[in-house]
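User: Please predict the structure of the protein below. I'd like the answer in structure-token form so I can feed it into my own downstream comparison script.

Assistant: Understood. Taking the following sequence of 151 residues as input:
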Amino acid sequence: MRQLNRGVVGRYGRLGPPAGMVLLLTTRGRRSGLEHVTPLQYEEIDGVFYVGSARGARADWFRNLVADPHVRLQVGQRQVEAEAEPITDPRRIADFFELRLGRHPRMMRLLLRAEGLPAGFDRSDLEAFASGKAVVALRPGPAASAAGLQG
């Protein structure tokens, strides 16, 4: 996965984001202190960027931002500092899935079916599935810039 991510990060800089759906998240390593860049699909809602973790709270990038919520985002050619808010409440995560289903119905239905949800899944199925996942709200702003990553 890391090698795939490096390829996406390299392409992002040269060619721009794939279809405007991917941002680059820079976190500080919780043990190493080094910066790590991870490409993630996102949804923007009222100026806040939301990203999901298929591995839930086990993903390295998620554990890094829990340890240090000050992050940097690259969205297209724009770079901003942001504050990360981890979300693990299954109801809120199911809300995120419903939003993504509304915006990207084909892609999301395929992904959810591949993850084992039944063809006619409903809200209770989404909430049960969401219990092992995590979402992060990334809020750009001056407070994040003052305390965030240098770069």
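That's the full token string. DSSP finds six helices and six strands in the chain.
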